Amino acid sequence: MRILQVVHQFPPKRVGGTEIYTQNLSCALAKRGHEVIVFHREEGGRPHEEEADFHSLKVHKVYYALSRATPLEAFLLSFRNRFIERSFARLLDRLEPQVVHFQHLKDLSINLVTLAHRRGLPTVLTFHDYWLFCGNAQLITPRRKVCSGPFFWLNCAYCAAARVGAPFLVVAVPAIAGLFAYRAHLVRRAIRYVDLFVAPTAFVKEVFVKRGFSEGRVRQIDHGIDLQVRGGSVRLEDKLHFAYIGGLAWQKGVHVLIEAFNKLDPERAVLSIYGDEEVFPSYVEDLHRMARTPAIRFLGRLAREQLGQVLAETDVLVVPSLWYETSSLVIQEAFAAQVPVIASRLGALAEKVRHEVDGLLFAPGEPEALRQAMERLMETPSLLSDLRSYIGPVKKMAEHADEILGLYQELISRAAVKGG
Fold first, then answer.
1. What pTM value is reported for the model?
2. What are 268-284's pLDDT values in tens digits?
3. 405 and 380 within one domain
Protein backbone atom coordinates (compact mmCIF):
# COMPACT_ATOMS: atom_id res chain seq x y z
CA MET A 1 0.00 0.00 0.00
CA ARG A 2 1.25 3.50 -0.81
CA ILE A 3 0.44 5.83 2.10
CA LEU A 4 0.90 9.60 2.31
CA GLN A 5 1.19 11.03 5.83
CA VAL A 6 0.65 14.79 6.10
CA VAL A 7 1.86 16.69 9.17
CA HIS A 8 2.67 20.31 9.95
CA GLN A 9 6.23 19.62 11.13
CA PHE A 10 8.45 16.60 11.63
CA PRO A 11 11.64 15.32 13.30
CA PRO A 12 14.49 15.83 13.65
CA LYS A 13 13.86 19.58 14.00
CA ARG A 14 10.48 19.22 15.71
CA VAL A 15 9.78 16.50 18.26
CA GLY A 16 6.39 17.23 19.83
CA GLY A 17 3.75 14.59 20.49
CA THR A 18 2.12 14.80 17.06
CA GLU A 19 5.47 14.60 15.30
CA ILE A 20 6.67 11.62 17.36
CA TYR A 21 3.39 9.81 16.83
CA THR A 22 3.53 10.42 13.06
CA GLN A 23 7.10 9.17 12.90
CA ASN A 24 6.39 6.05 14.94
CA LEU A 25 3.23 5.18 13.01
CA SER A 26 4.93 5.76 9.66
CA CYS A 27 7.91 3.58 10.62
CA ALA A 28 5.59 0.83 11.86
CA LEU A 29 3.73 0.88 8.55
CA ALA A 30 6.98 0.87 6.58
CA LYS A 31 8.19 -2.17 8.56
CA ARG A 32 5.14 -4.03 7.26
CA GLY A 33 6.32 -3.42 3.70
CA HIS A 34 4.12 -0.44 2.88
CA GLU A 35 5.51 2.55 1.03
CA VAL A 36 5.16 5.56 3.33
CA ILE A 37 5.81 9.18 2.33
CA VAL A 38 5.69 12.04 4.83
CA PHE A 39 4.73 15.51 3.61
CA HIS A 40 5.48 18.46 5.91
CA ARG A 41 6.52 22.11 6.04
CA GLU A 42 9.99 23.20 7.10
CA GLU A 43 10.87 26.68 8.30
CA GLY A 44 13.51 28.80 6.59
CA GLY A 45 14.80 30.06 3.30
CA ARG A 46 13.02 30.88 0.08
CA PRO A 47 9.99 28.73 -0.80
CA HIS A 48 11.20 25.47 -2.30
CA GLU A 49 10.82 21.70 -2.07
CA GLU A 50 13.20 18.96 -1.05
CA GLU A 51 13.04 15.19 -0.79
CA ALA A 52 15.01 13.28 1.81
CA ASP A 53 15.21 9.96 3.64
CA PHE A 54 14.56 9.76 7.37
CA HIS A 55 15.07 6.32 8.88
CA SER A 56 12.96 4.04 6.66
CA LEU A 57 10.77 6.86 5.37
CA LYS A 58 10.67 9.08 2.33
CA VAL A 59 10.11 12.68 3.36
CA HIS A 60 8.88 15.50 1.14
CA LYS A 61 9.69 18.86 2.73
CA VAL A 62 8.20 22.15 1.63
CA TYR A 63 10.29 25.06 2.83
CA TYR A 64 8.20 28.12 3.54
CA ALA A 65 9.30 30.68 6.12
CA LEU A 66 6.65 32.05 8.47
CA SER A 67 8.99 33.48 11.09
CA ARG A 68 9.38 36.76 9.16
CA ALA A 69 5.68 37.12 8.36
CA THR A 70 3.51 39.79 9.98
CA PRO A 71 0.89 38.50 12.47
CA LEU A 72 -1.82 38.94 9.83
CA GLU A 73 0.20 37.12 7.17
CA ALA A 74 1.08 34.32 9.59
CA PHE A 75 -2.59 33.89 10.51
CA LEU A 76 -3.76 33.71 6.90
CA LEU A 77 -0.93 31.37 5.92
CA SER A 78 -1.73 29.10 8.85
CA PHE A 79 -4.77 27.75 7.01
CA ARG A 80 -4.32 28.70 3.34
CA ASN A 81 -1.01 28.62 1.45
CA ARG A 82 -1.12 28.37 -2.33
CA PHE A 83 2.56 27.47 -2.72
CA ILE A 84 2.12 24.49 -0.40
CA GLU A 85 -1.10 23.55 -2.19
CA ARG A 86 0.67 23.47 -5.56
CA SER A 87 3.49 21.37 -4.10
CA PHE A 88 1.00 18.95 -2.58
CA ALA A 89 -0.99 18.65 -5.81
CA ARG A 90 2.14 17.82 -7.79
CA LEU A 91 3.12 15.19 -5.22
CA LEU A 92 -0.33 13.58 -5.37
CA ASP A 93 -0.19 13.39 -9.15
CA ARG A 94 3.31 11.94 -9.16
CA LEU A 95 2.97 9.42 -6.31
CA GLU A 96 -0.68 8.46 -6.71
CA PRO A 97 -1.04 7.35 -3.07
CA GLN A 98 -3.80 4.92 -2.18
CA VAL A 99 -4.71 6.75 1.02
CA VAL A 100 -3.87 10.13 2.59
CA HIS A 101 -3.68 10.44 6.37
CA PHE A 102 -3.77 14.03 7.65
CA GLN A 103 -2.11 14.31 11.05
CA HIS A 104 -2.08 18.12 11.19
CA LEU A 105 -2.75 20.94 8.74
CA LYS A 106 -1.66 24.02 10.68
CA ASP A 107 0.73 26.19 8.64
CA LEU A 108 0.09 23.99 5.61
CA SER A 109 -3.35 24.56 4.09
CA ILE A 110 -6.82 23.28 4.89
CA ASN A 111 -7.34 23.00 1.13
CA LEU A 112 -5.02 19.97 0.99
CA VAL A 113 -8.05 17.89 1.99
CA THR A 114 -9.98 19.19 -1.00
CA LEU A 115 -7.09 18.46 -3.35
CA ALA A 116 -6.98 14.83 -2.20
CA HIS A 117 -10.75 14.49 -2.51
CA ARG A 118 -10.77 15.82 -6.07
CA ARG A 119 -8.46 12.98 -7.03
CA GLY A 120 -10.77 10.42 -5.46
CA LEU A 121 -8.30 9.52 -2.71
CA PRO A 122 -9.52 8.06 0.61
CA THR A 123 -8.68 10.40 3.50
CA VAL A 124 -8.24 10.03 7.26
CA LEU A 125 -7.67 12.87 9.76
CA THR A 126 -6.51 12.39 13.35
CA PHE A 127 -7.47 14.88 16.08
CA HIS A 128 -4.22 15.80 17.83
CA ASP A 129 -5.59 19.09 19.16
CA TYR A 130 -8.46 21.51 18.47
CA TRP A 131 -7.02 23.48 15.56
CA LEU A 132 -9.99 22.74 13.31
CA PHE A 133 -12.16 25.09 15.36
CA CYS A 134 -9.67 26.90 17.62
CA GLY A 135 -7.09 29.23 16.10
CA ASN A 136 -4.51 28.58 18.83
CA ALA A 137 -5.35 24.84 18.74
CA GLN A 138 -5.43 24.37 22.51
CA LEU A 139 -8.74 25.85 23.72
CA ILE A 140 -7.02 27.98 26.33
CA THR A 141 -7.12 31.75 26.70
CA PRO A 142 -4.17 34.10 27.27
CA ARG A 143 -5.49 34.40 30.84
CA ARG A 144 -4.67 30.69 31.19
CA LYS A 145 -8.30 29.62 31.42
CA VAL A 146 -9.88 26.76 29.51
CA CYS A 147 -12.03 28.02 26.62
CA SER A 148 -15.34 26.46 25.58
CA GLY A 149 -14.80 27.39 21.93
CA PRO A 150 -15.67 30.23 19.55
CA PHE A 151 -18.47 32.64 20.48
CA PHE A 152 -19.27 34.36 17.18
CA TRP A 153 -15.44 34.43 16.90
CA LEU A 154 -15.32 37.53 19.11
CA ASN A 155 -13.44 35.72 21.87
CA CYS A 156 -11.10 34.35 19.18
CA ALA A 157 -10.36 37.93 18.09
CA TYR A 158 -9.60 39.06 21.65
CA CYS A 159 -7.42 35.98 22.13
CA ALA A 160 -5.46 36.71 18.94
CA ALA A 161 -4.88 40.34 19.92
CA ALA A 162 -3.54 39.30 23.32
CA ARG A 163 -1.30 36.58 21.92
CA VAL A 164 0.50 38.89 19.50
CA GLY A 165 1.04 41.38 22.32
CA ALA A 166 -0.93 44.15 20.63
CA PRO A 167 -3.71 45.29 22.98
CA PHE A 168 -4.51 48.20 20.65
CA LEU A 169 -5.96 45.64 18.24
CA VAL A 170 -8.97 45.37 20.53
CA VAL A 171 -10.52 48.22 18.53
CA ALA A 172 -10.33 45.99 15.46
CA VAL A 173 -12.07 43.02 17.10
CA PRO A 174 -15.03 42.98 14.65
CA ALA A 175 -12.67 42.83 11.66
CA ILE A 176 -10.50 40.16 13.29
CA ALA A 177 -13.60 38.16 14.16
CA GLY A 178 -14.52 38.32 10.48
CA LEU A 179 -11.19 36.73 9.59
CA PHE A 180 -11.85 33.90 12.02
CA ALA A 181 -15.30 33.43 10.52
CA TYR A 182 -13.68 33.19 7.07
CA ARG A 183 -11.23 30.62 8.42
CA ALA A 184 -14.08 28.61 9.95
CA HIS A 185 -15.93 28.67 6.62
CA LEU A 186 -12.93 27.24 4.76
CA VAL A 187 -12.39 24.59 7.41
CA ARG A 188 -16.03 23.47 7.36
CA ARG A 189 -16.02 23.31 3.57
CA ALA A 190 -12.86 21.19 3.46
CA ILE A 191 -13.55 18.72 6.27
CA ARG A 192 -16.74 17.60 4.50
CA TYR A 193 -14.38 15.61 2.30
CA VAL A 194 -12.60 13.72 5.10
CA ASP A 195 -13.80 10.12 5.00
CA LEU A 196 -12.95 9.19 8.59
CA PHE A 197 -11.70 11.01 11.68
CA VAL A 198 -9.64 9.37 14.43
CA ALA A 199 -10.05 10.45 18.07
CA PRO A 200 -7.35 9.11 20.43
CA THR A 201 -9.60 9.28 23.50
CA ALA A 202 -13.30 9.23 24.37
CA PHE A 203 -12.96 12.79 25.68
CA VAL A 204 -11.75 14.09 22.32
CA LYS A 205 -14.45 12.24 20.41
CA GLU A 206 -17.10 13.81 22.64
CA VAL A 207 -15.66 17.31 22.15
CA PHE A 208 -15.70 17.06 18.36
CA VAL A 209 -19.12 15.44 18.15
CA LYS A 210 -20.48 18.29 20.27
CA ARG A 211 -18.90 20.68 17.77
CA GLY A 212 -20.98 19.16 14.97
CA PHE A 213 -18.72 16.39 13.65
CA SER A 214 -20.72 13.35 12.58
CA GLU A 215 -20.37 10.64 15.22
CA GLY A 216 -20.49 7.99 12.53
CA ARG A 217 -17.35 9.40 10.91
CA VAL A 218 -15.33 9.57 14.16
CA ARG A 219 -13.53 6.41 15.29
CA GLN A 220 -11.96 6.24 18.72
CA ILE A 221 -8.58 4.52 18.51
CA ASP A 222 -6.08 4.94 21.34
CA HIS A 223 -2.51 5.73 20.36
CA GLY A 224 0.17 3.10 20.61
CA ILE A 225 3.78 3.65 21.64
CA ASP A 226 7.08 2.42 20.29
CA LEU A 227 9.41 2.36 23.27
CA GLN A 228 11.71 -0.21 24.81
CA VAL A 229 11.91 0.35 28.57
CA ARG A 230 12.90 -1.59 31.65
CA GLY A 231 10.21 -2.16 34.22
CA GLY A 232 10.62 -0.65 37.66
CA SER A 233 12.63 2.25 39.00
CA VAL A 234 16.39 2.47 39.29
CA ARG A 235 17.10 4.58 42.38
CA LEU A 236 20.08 6.86 41.85
CA GLU A 237 19.88 8.52 45.26
CA ASP A 238 17.99 8.29 48.51
CA LYS A 239 15.32 10.74 47.38
CA LEU A 240 11.99 10.43 45.60
CA HIS A 241 12.63 11.28 41.97
CA PHE A 242 9.90 13.31 40.23
CA ALA A 243 10.25 14.13 36.54
CA TYR A 244 8.61 16.32 33.92
CA ILE A 245 9.17 15.41 30.26
CA GLY A 246 7.68 17.58 27.53
CA GLY A 247 7.38 21.06 26.09
CA LEU A 248 8.44 24.04 28.17
CA ALA A 249 5.40 26.21 27.46
CA TRP A 250 3.03 27.80 29.95
CA GLN A 251 0.11 25.72 28.63
CA LYS A 252 1.97 22.68 29.96
CA GLY A 253 1.86 24.07 33.51
CA VAL A 254 5.56 23.64 34.30
CA HIS A 255 5.45 26.78 36.47
CA VAL A 256 2.72 25.13 38.56
CA LEU A 257 5.00 22.15 39.12
CA ILE A 258 7.97 24.30 40.15
CA GLU A 259 5.86 26.36 42.55
CA ALA A 260 4.58 23.15 44.14
CA PHE A 261 8.01 21.53 44.37
CA ASN A 262 9.52 24.64 45.97
CA LYS A 263 7.44 23.83 49.05
CA LEU A 264 8.78 20.28 49.42
CA ASP A 265 11.79 19.22 51.47
CA PRO A 266 14.73 19.23 49.00
CA GLU A 267 16.51 16.68 51.19
CA ARG A 268 13.81 14.13 50.40
CA ALA A 269 12.93 14.76 46.76
CA VAL A 270 14.43 15.82 43.44
CA LEU A 271 12.73 17.16 40.32
CA SER A 272 14.19 16.65 36.85
CA ILE A 273 12.78 18.81 34.05
CA TYR A 274 13.40 17.68 30.48
CA GLY A 275 12.45 19.96 27.60
CA ASP A 276 13.77 22.18 24.83
CA GLU A 277 14.69 25.53 26.39
CA GLU A 278 15.02 27.36 23.07
CA VAL A 279 11.40 27.33 21.87
CA PHE A 280 9.97 29.72 24.49
CA PRO A 281 13.11 31.24 26.07
CA SER A 282 11.35 33.98 28.07
CA TYR A 283 9.11 31.41 29.76
CA VAL A 284 12.12 29.20 30.49
CA GLU A 285 13.89 32.18 32.08
CA ASP A 286 10.88 32.63 34.34
CA LEU A 287 11.04 28.96 35.29
CA HIS A 288 14.72 29.23 36.23
CA ARG A 289 13.98 32.29 38.36
CA MET A 290 11.13 30.48 40.10
CA ALA A 291 13.24 27.48 41.07
CA ARG A 292 14.47 28.12 44.61
CA THR A 293 16.37 24.89 45.22
CA PRO A 294 19.17 22.97 43.49
CA ALA A 295 16.93 19.91 43.83
CA ILE A 296 15.18 21.24 40.70
CA ARG A 297 17.33 20.25 37.74
CA PHE A 298 16.85 21.59 34.20
CA LEU A 299 18.30 18.90 31.93
CA GLY A 300 17.39 20.19 28.48
CA ARG A 301 15.88 18.42 25.51
CA LEU A 302 15.67 14.67 25.90
CA ALA A 303 16.74 12.51 22.98
CA ARG A 304 14.26 9.76 22.17
CA GLU A 305 16.87 7.07 22.61
CA GLN A 306 17.45 8.25 26.20
CA LEU A 307 13.80 8.17 27.25
CA GLY A 308 13.76 4.55 28.41
CA GLN A 309 16.75 5.06 30.68
CA VAL A 310 15.35 8.30 32.12
CA LEU A 311 12.03 6.65 32.94
CA ALA A 312 13.86 3.74 34.56
CA GLU A 313 15.46 6.29 36.91
CA THR A 314 12.15 8.06 37.64
CA ASP A 315 9.78 7.31 40.54
CA VAL A 316 6.89 9.58 39.49
CA LEU A 317 6.10 11.42 36.28
CA VAL A 318 4.22 14.72 36.65
CA VAL A 319 1.95 16.04 33.87
CA PRO A 320 0.60 19.42 35.11
CA SER A 321 -1.07 20.63 31.88
CA LEU A 322 -3.47 23.56 31.86
CA TRP A 323 -5.11 22.76 28.51
CA TYR A 324 -7.36 19.93 27.36
CA GLU A 325 -4.72 17.43 26.27
CA THR A 326 -6.17 15.16 23.60
CA SER A 327 -4.04 12.22 24.73
CA SER A 328 -0.61 11.80 26.26
CA LEU A 329 2.13 9.67 24.79
CA VAL A 330 4.41 10.42 27.72
CA ILE A 331 1.86 8.96 30.17
CA GLN A 332 1.69 5.79 28.10
CA GLU A 333 5.49 5.68 28.00
CA ALA A 334 5.69 6.15 31.77
CA PHE A 335 3.20 3.33 32.31
CA ALA A 336 5.24 1.11 29.99
CA ALA A 337 8.13 1.68 32.40
CA GLN A 338 5.90 1.01 35.44
CA VAL A 339 6.14 4.66 36.52
CA PRO A 340 3.02 6.12 38.22
CA VAL A 341 1.78 9.52 37.09
CA ILE A 342 0.48 12.64 38.83
CA ALA A 343 -1.62 14.59 36.32
CA SER A 344 -4.09 17.45 36.07
CA ARG A 345 -7.69 16.37 36.40
CA LEU A 346 -8.43 17.81 32.98
CA GLY A 347 -9.41 16.59 29.53
CA ALA A 348 -7.97 13.29 28.39
CA LEU A 349 -5.49 13.19 31.29
CA ALA A 350 -8.33 12.26 33.63
CA GLU A 351 -9.10 9.43 31.23
CA LYS A 352 -5.52 8.20 31.00
CA VAL A 353 -4.72 8.23 34.74
CA ARG A 354 -6.95 6.32 37.15
CA HIS A 355 -6.95 8.27 40.40
CA GLU A 356 -5.47 6.25 43.28
CA VAL A 357 -5.13 3.21 41.00
CA ASP A 358 -2.12 3.89 38.74
CA GLY A 359 -1.59 7.56 39.60
CA LEU A 360 -3.03 10.64 41.25
CA LEU A 361 -5.06 13.50 39.81
CA PHE A 362 -5.07 17.07 41.10
CA ALA A 363 -6.96 20.28 40.36
CA PRO A 364 -5.32 21.91 37.29
CA GLY A 365 -3.39 25.10 37.90
CA GLU A 366 -3.38 24.61 41.70
CA PRO A 367 0.19 24.38 43.05
CA GLU A 368 -1.01 23.54 46.56
CA ALA A 369 -3.08 20.62 45.31
CA LEU A 370 -0.09 19.33 43.35
CA ARG A 371 2.19 19.77 46.39
CA GLN A 372 -0.19 17.70 48.48
CA ALA A 373 -0.22 14.91 45.89
CA MET A 374 3.57 14.86 45.68
CA GLU A 375 4.00 14.97 49.45
CA ARG A 376 1.48 12.18 49.86
CA LEU A 377 3.74 9.90 47.85
CA MET A 378 6.78 11.04 49.80
CA GLU A 379 5.07 10.28 53.10
CA THR A 380 3.50 6.98 52.01
CA PRO A 381 5.98 4.75 50.15
CA SER A 382 3.47 1.90 50.18
CA LEU A 383 1.07 4.00 48.08
CA LEU A 384 3.71 4.48 45.42
CA SER A 385 4.30 0.74 45.37
CA ASP A 386 0.56 0.06 45.09
CA LEU A 387 0.15 2.53 42.21
CA ARG A 388 3.02 0.91 40.38
CA SER A 389 1.56 -2.56 40.83
CA TYR A 390 -1.79 -1.59 39.30
CA ILE A 391 -0.37 -0.12 36.10
CA GLY A 392 -1.88 -2.12 33.26
CA PRO A 393 -0.49 -3.13 29.87
CA VAL A 394 0.14 -0.36 27.37
CA LYS A 395 -0.90 -0.57 23.73
CA LYS A 396 2.10 -1.03 21.45
CA MET A 397 2.52 0.82 18.19
CA ALA A 398 2.39 -2.47 16.29
CA GLU A 399 -1.17 -3.07 17.52
CA HIS A 400 -2.15 0.53 16.81
CA ALA A 401 -0.67 0.35 13.30
CA ASP A 402 -2.81 -2.71 12.59
CA GLU A 403 -5.92 -0.77 13.62
CA ILE A 404 -5.00 2.17 11.40
CA LEU A 405 -4.25 -0.16 8.49
CA GLY A 406 -7.73 -1.60 8.98
CA LEU A 407 -9.17 1.89 8.48
CA TYR A 408 -7.10 2.40 5.34
CA GLN A 409 -8.20 -0.92 3.87
CA GLU A 410 -11.84 -0.19 4.72
CA LEU A 411 -11.69 3.13 2.90
CA ILE A 412 -9.83 1.73 -0.10
CA SER A 413 -12.43 -1.03 -0.44
CA ARG A 414 -15.23 1.51 -0.12
CA ALA A 415 -13.64 3.66 -2.85
CA ALA A 416 -13.26 0.63 -5.11
CA VAL A 417 -16.97 -0.16 -4.77
CA LYS A 418 -17.87 3.40 -5.68
CA GLY A 419 -15.49 3.38 -8.61
CA GLY A 420 -16.67 -0.02 -9.84
1. 0.92
2. 999 999 999 999 999 99
3. no
